[in-house]
Every structure is written in C-alpha cells, then in structure tokens.
C-alpha cells in the first residue's frame, strides 16, 4: 500500500510546484487572519486592516492582494465587500476563499465579526497543523526516494568495479559488446548523479519552506571560499609541481579539505544567525504571554513590554529584548523599534508577530483581548514548528548512515573483487594494483562530492534552508572521508593487499 501511495505523493508535489501562489497564500493566511482578528477585536474594520496589510512586506502575497483590493475600491469605486467577494471567487486557495466569503456573509447578515474571525482563525490553524504533518509525510517519502537513488548509484559503482577489475569480460568485448568506458563512469559520477541530487533539492525546496528571510551572508562567504578552492584544485591538476596532490593516496584528502574549506566558514556564519533566530522563535510566545499578563493587571502596553523584556531566560533573544527595552525607555516610537528588530532578526514568524503587536498597540490601544488572541496563536505556531522539527530530525541520522555505507561498500567490493581476481581463476586476468588504486581514487572523489551535496538536501529537509546544508555537508564529507580511509586501510590489511 505504501508503494502505491508514493506516485500520488510525487504528483501532489508537482501540483504544488505548478500552483506556487496557492501554497504561499495558505502559508501566509494564518498570520493575515491573525492580524485581521486582532484589529477587529480593537474596533478596526477589515477594510482598514487591508490598508494596514499594504505595508506588511513580510507577507508579500497578501501585500499584493491588499494593494489590489485597495486599488479597486479607491480607484475603480467598487464596494469593499463586493471587491472581497470577487477576489475570493478568483483565488485557487479554498481556505482563503472560505475565509473571505464567510466574512462578507457575516457583515451582510449583521453577525458578530470578532467571534466569526476567532472561530475561523482557530480552524485555519488546525488546517495548518494537519498540513504540516502531511508535509512531513511527503518529505519522508522524498528522503526515501533519495536513499533509493543512492543505492542505484552504488550498484552502478559496483558494476563498473566488477567489469574493470578483471579481464573476465574480454570475450564479450571481442564479440562486439560495448564495454563500460571511463568517460561514461565519469559522466555518471560527476554529472548525472549530482544532477539528480539537484533535482531532489528542487523538490525539497518546493515542499519545505524555511522561516529565515534575506539569508545571504552564508552564501556570500561560501562563494568567496569556493573560488579559492576551485582555483587551488585547477592548479593541482595543471601545474606539474603540484601534480603530486592528485596522486591516489593524496587526492581524496585534498578534495575533502577543499570541500570543508567551502562549507565550514559559511556554516559558522549560518550557525551564529540561526542561534539567535531559533532562540527568538522559542521565546517569542513566552514574551507575548508576559506582555499579555502584565497588560491584564492594568499596565500600559509600553510598560507591559518593558516589564516582559526584563525577564531572564530568553537566551540569545534577551539581547534583542534589551535593545527594545532601552529604546522604549528613551521614548523611541514603536515602528522605529520594529525597524531595529528587523535588523537583528531574520525569522519571519517572529517579525510578523512583533509587527502585529506594534499594530495592535498603535491602532487599537493594545487591549488585553487582542493581546490574548495574539499570544494564544503564537503559542500554537511554536508547537507546530517544534513538532515538525522533532519528526524531521531522524532523517539527519539516515544521512550519516548512507554516507558510511556507500564508502564502506564500494571499498569492500573493489578490494574483494581484486583479491579474487588475483587468484588467477580461469579466464580472469587481474589488473595491476596501481590501476585499482586509481579506480578507487576515482570513486572516492565521486563519493565525497555526493556526500557533500547530500548535506544541502538534508539541510533543506531538516531546517528549511540550503544555508543549513553547509554544516551538514561539512560533517557528511568528513564522515565519508574517514570511512573511506579506514575501510581501505583495514580491509586492505585483512585481504593482504600492500599499498603501492
């Protein structure tokens, strides 16, 4: 039954790729609905909420939608409810359509708008939570398919080793059956397999969205180090004085060092960025809860924020809260404070929640009811993200397992076939050991490259951004190199093969 479901899952992923706007609407809808609900609880109409939404750049899909709604009302002169109904009828998102049509119906019937929005917001978050678990199922299938691809690649490696380590198949070549050339294997190892990995990364990018926005610094650092590493490798292969670096005993180590040189600096930059942003995601609901409870005691919204910012235990997020506290004590406007927060954080759920907090205070006075709604659903967002990360974490372990296995199996087969061919079985002529070393060097370079690329796939699946792949790629390529070195040394000693 599970095998029959996988093509359907891949079909859904392709459908999501064709309807990217729909997925973006569904992703941003909980935050837009939260803003509408809180402003409505503060006495602001939904049309005025649309006007506010025009300036929310962290919800780009709804920002475009808000600009279109305002344009049709203020330029073309249509009634706001009529415009909302038309926009709802045109959208591909069923959840968004029901949300807007339900609001229009509630207004026309004279119902309680706040109660409707709170009820619908609860439904939207339940749908989002269910969608998150379905997404994890699809990501699991994607990882399984990627593992199958690696197994097929390993089988191809083994096939070439069997053909090239012995002359047993020379009669087939003499009869006109084409053999497996080195060029074909190079195409498989260094072009086809990486290309397939890139395709899987594209599917992972479609399915898994990260929370970090404008994450450019790790890529810039990696680009600089990549230029240096590539220039060094080109020099090693072209300059005679450096040709010793391409010897079978040295080349895998050189390539490993170059790949680590690309990944480690960028990984350090990413880890520092992720540390403060992850702390903000984990602490933001607690901070909002402190603000809400302080507001219920009668403190003003500004003093409630200052009181909540004094609480210890927020980790790296305390640095941002200390900045907020000092600026508020100096009387800096909330919107300017939000600008400072944007320069310190890059996680868009936290930025959107803080923006909603600012709008709630500036527009509606920061009523305890509005703050309670914001806090309640911020806690639900955190629970969904925590559960998603916990369910995806085992796939990181799987990546290390396949890195060890592909290195160990390739070495085992190569040395075993060579040892058997050395017994001079009828029709079998063993190749010289230095030829075997060159072949193993060839495959070792391919394995190192594949494990390095796998790190970016794992980073995207586990944390939602390719920048996270720098740390996983560094760990995986190091794991693969150690596995190759130990397996070649230990298995070579067990089989009595001396290194030339």
Summarize the structure.
This protein has 19 helices and no strands. The chain is mostly helical.
Q: Which features characterize this protein?
A:
500 residues; mainly alpha
Descriptive report:
With 500 residues, the protein is mainly α. The protein has a domain at 18-111. The protein is built from 19 helices and no strands. The chain has helices at 2-18, 20-41, 46-53, 60-74, 80-90, 94-109, 113-164, 170-174, 182-207, 217-238, 251-296, 301-309, 317-329, 334-344, 348-364, 368-392, 394-421, 433-463, 469-494. Helix 5 packs antiparallel against helix 6 (94-109) and helix 12 packs across helix 13. It is elongated, with a radius of gyration of 29 Å. It starts with a helix and ends in a 6-residue tail after the last helix. The model is unreliable at 1-7 and 13-20 (pLDDT under 50).
Structural topology:
Layout: H1 2-18, H2 20-41, H3 46-53, H4 60-74, H5 80-90, H6 94-109, H7 113-164, H8 170-174, H9 182-207, H10 217-238, H11 251-296, H12 301-309, H13 317-329, H14 334-344, H15 348-364, H16 368-392, H17 394-421, H18 433-463, H19 469-494
Helix pairs in contact: 2-3, 2-7, 2-15, 2-16, 3-4, 4-5, 5-6, 6-7, 7-9, 7-16, 7-17, 7-18, 9-18, 10-11, 11-12, 11-16, 11-18, 11-19, 12-13, 13-14, 14-15, 15-16, 17-18, 17-19, 18-19
